[in-house]
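## Example pair
The file below holds two records. Each record gives the amino-acid sequence first, followed by its structure token line.
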Amino acid sequence: MSRARVLAQTEVIAAHAEAQLNTFTEARIEGVQVIAEHSTAGDDRVCEICEPLEGQTYSIEEARGRIPVHPNCRCTFRPIIENGRDIELR
């Protein structure tokens, strides 16, 4: 893979991760806290760097800048709702 393609793909992943965190922040409802869970691609290509990060949770601010972990990283964040009852994110 060319250096330019790796750089472009990595920058897209970084922008996507930050946009996800912004969305989690905007989804806040009074009395409910949304945190970010690190999620790998979950396949046999997950690297040894990312594998132990699966399921780690962070506050939104702690999560900023954590993804991508490395060039060509395929990880993402999932929202986790704390202190919420019968609430669904759409």
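Second record, same layout:
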Amino acid sequence: MVRVRKPACGGGWAVALGLLAWGCASAAVEPVAAGSLTIPPGLDRYRPTPEQNPLTPERVALGERLFFEPLLSLDRSLACASCHVPGLAFTNGRRVSVGVSGRTGSRNVPTLVNRAFGRSFFWDGRTATLEEQVLRPIEDPLEMALPLDEAVARLGADYRYVHLFRAVFGTPPDSATLAAALASYVRTVLSGDTRYDRWVGGEPEALSEEERSGFALFRGKAGCVTCHVPPNFTDEQFHNTGVALRGGVFADSGRYLVTADPEDIGAFKTPTLRQLELTTPYMHDGSFATLEDVVEFYDRGGHRSRRIDPRVHTLGLSRAEKRDLLSFLRSLSG
């Protein structure tokens, strides 16, 4: 996982990019070494990055600072990191999101781990790029609730940010450079080099016999791999597993809210399984507290409905098979 830390000094702060520094004996955001932009073993070696937003240490360091900046919320109480907590694999451990003034959303906070490889964002895929995605929570009334123009104005009124944006982008803060910096930081939030990755890489003892048996079930009888495709363990597609079904009615229409296609009612994007032990609770609505709950749900064949994905069906796993499968899933964390 990417290393992050909060400011270490009182009211003043410093940003060390080899360009500018203010106010503190030690830097609040350390320079990002070029080597830290490398991709860990086990992941795709190509990280999609827009030509207009090249990944640089300077953009990443500024994005990191902004990720922890409460100035970007309406009442200055929340930052991106308030919901996407690094120690919880960039989730928050709650069932659903909680925004300014305690306003609650209806969906679980998705991890930002390996979103550099994403093809669409949010549970319903409502945005196509990270640059679009990172601005939405700032404006969302149930999250940070700050109009984007006001966010830019606040940054523009802070001489430190004005100097820093000029140093990194050559311009004062605006919505495009705010998005570019935050997206750059998110592209460095990567998880690989787990015991599973080392096993795939040629270390036969990296996984136990139980975990190897669980991987065979993952690829075979349990059928998990049909949606959770390595190396990032997601197909980036949308599936209706019946999780949102309540009393025969979908409590959340999911992808349908974006496409208006009736076939997308109740469909949600496949989440990555990377760092799975840290991203509790599970599903788009946080309705399952444990991995055991998730395995039991799929073993039963989900919640049946006309539109349920045909790949979701009764599995008939034995107690030992469930144990082995859970062991394998836990090997994807670390």
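Notes on the second record: The two ends are 9 Å apart (CA to CA). The chain has two domains: 34-186, 195-330.
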